[in-house]
Amino acid sequence: VASKDETTESSEDEEHEGGALGGLMSYMKQKLNISGPQEPPVKVLSSLDVDGVVQHMKSDNCRNIITMAGAGISTSAGIPDFRSPESGLYNNLQKYNLPYPEAIFELNYFRKNPQPFFTLAKELYPGSFDPTPCHYFIKLLENKGLLLRHFTQNIDTLEYVAGISEDKLVEAHGSFRTAHCIQCRKLYHQNWVKDQLFSDHIPSCTECAGVVKPDIVFFGEGLPDKFFQRLSSDFPSCDLLIIMGTSLTVQPFASLIDNVPASCPRLLINREAVGESDSVMSMLQNLMGKSGGLQLKSPHNTRDVALLGDCDDGCLLLAEKLGWKEELDELIVAGKKNGTDEAKV
Ligand code: OAD
Ligand code: ZN
């Protein structure tokens, strides 16, 4: 089982077919007797823009949509993401005196010093935030029978709150719903951990006094089985991949984008362009007959579209162009009403 790992970010967008690199690539292909991709991808989109994607979504060829998300879909709910320069969590952890920001989610560090994680967990504890229009757009895809699966890296549970069915959801980085003792693996439920946390105790095992850690996936831990099962069952039949609010820097989640069929359109909705492979990775993957990363700026792009900006705006624009605006608004209003009713109870 692959463990969660931070990748190095891609540096420049060198055109991999040209220049010295291109020469090296043809040389290696010849030497290794490797041919390129077997079948050239079919162009599915009528145009490489949002209208092309919308036309595809309206057609009978688009029945299985997979959505992939990260912290950026929840920032408008008031939850910080991790890597945005000013507001990102990793830039705001000074008070925890960590050796480096990611240590707060590292198992080895947690074994030695669990306090920073629990202080943060208390601050960001699920239950105090409302889903965003983007979450409701994903729910609308489910209502329309178009959502094959939603893969999320988020642990804020806002997908559940928005009503997305458990069956449609893959929580790739786990959740707070269960917890385990890191020594004897005894199972604990969310409420027990929550009580400990909110009375400012480090949750410790009633059997062996080991620390009890919520089942969110730390760096150095394996992802849930469901992630790998759904990856192999769903991605081969994906007709459209929508990637939202993620920097695509954490593996193995980031490489999901390379698991859809070669012709499957991929729409990125994010504040910045991400997921474009660096030239060396592209070259290696090309050699193996695979494409690596989004091809947003490549002249060979046949299927990737970027809608740069806020996830909510992107989803509202899609809904409008699809003629779903009213239905989306209804879901948002109903969600707000539920939230208010719950608050009253
Ligand atoms: P990041 O913080 O790395 O990336 C968030 C991305 O969303 C960035 O590219 C932002 O520019 C973008 N963004 C932020 N707000 C947005 C908005 N309203 N609309 C559109 N785009 C927006 O977050 P992740 O990719 O989710 O692991 O990070 C991956 C993993 O790294 C997390 O699951 C977490 C962390 O270590 C944990 O274990 C908790
Ligand atoms: Zn124990």
Order of helices and strands: EHHEHHHEHEEEHEHEEEHEHH
What ligands are attached or bound here? 2'-O-acetyl adenosine-5-diphosphoribose, zinc ion
CATH fold name of the largest domain, please? Rossmann fold
The CATH fourth-level homologous superfamily of the largest domain: TPP-binding domain
Q: Can you tell me the CATH architecture of the largest domain?
A: 3-Layer(aba) Sandwich
The top level CATH class name of the largest domain: Alpha Beta
Count of individual helical segments? 11
Proportion of residues in extended strands? 5-15%
| Main sheet makeup | 6 strands, parallel
Proportion of residues in helical segments: 25-40%
Globally, the shape reads globular
Order of neighbouring strands in the sheet with most strands: 4-3-2-8-10-11
Query: Could you give the distance between the termini?
Result: 43 Å
Counted up, domains total 2
Structural class comes to: alpha/beta
Q: Give Rg in angstroms.
A: 21 Å
- Average pLDDT, rounded to a whole number, is 88
The low-confidence parts are 8-18
Compute the number of strand runs. Answer: 11
